[in-house]
Design a protein that fits this description.
The protein is of the alpha+beta class. The chain has two helices and three strands; from the N terminus they run H-E-E-E-H. The protein has a three-stranded antiparallel sheet, with helices on one face. Strand 1 and strand 2 form a beta hairpin. The radius of gyration is 24 Å and the shape is flat. The termini are far apart.
Length: 116
């Protein structure tokens, strides 16, 4: 069986845990208290390996310049912008790859035509 890449594997493990905690509202996993800020759980990843996943609670500092709601929304907006920028960069990359491939194929045909 082919190994699943680290990026895909870890994303799947995170989705599994978040679904268990926030979507299903029932969990078959045994979350164990690690310390005052974290719980941990053992799960099997897509490659069949047992993985240790830590769930942590981070309490944001109080700010004088924005409310807690505004801070949360600013972090959501920053993440969404980052993902949009990443998607745009990927689309440009794919467009350039297609353009370069078409140019190489056209050059190859032109060179083939010259040789005949």
């Amino acid at each position: 069986m082919a190994k699943v890449t680290k990026l895909v594997n870890e994303k799947a493990v995170r989705e599994l845990i978040f679904d268990e905690l926030f979507v299903d509202n029932k969990t078959e996993y045994n979350f164990v208290k690690i310390n005052d800020r974290q719980y941990g759980v053992l799960v099997v990843d897509l490659n069949g390996d047992v993985r240790y996943v830590r769930i942590g609670a981070i309490v944001a500092e109080l700010r004088e310049d924005m409310t807690a709601e505004e801070l949360m929304q600013s972090e959501i907006d920053a993440y969404n912008q980052k993902m949009a920028d990443k998607a745009e960069k990927q689309a440009k990359k794919e467009k350039k790859i297609a353009k370069d491939k078409a140019k190489r194929e056209a050059d190859a045909k032109a060179k083939e035509g010259e040789q005949k």
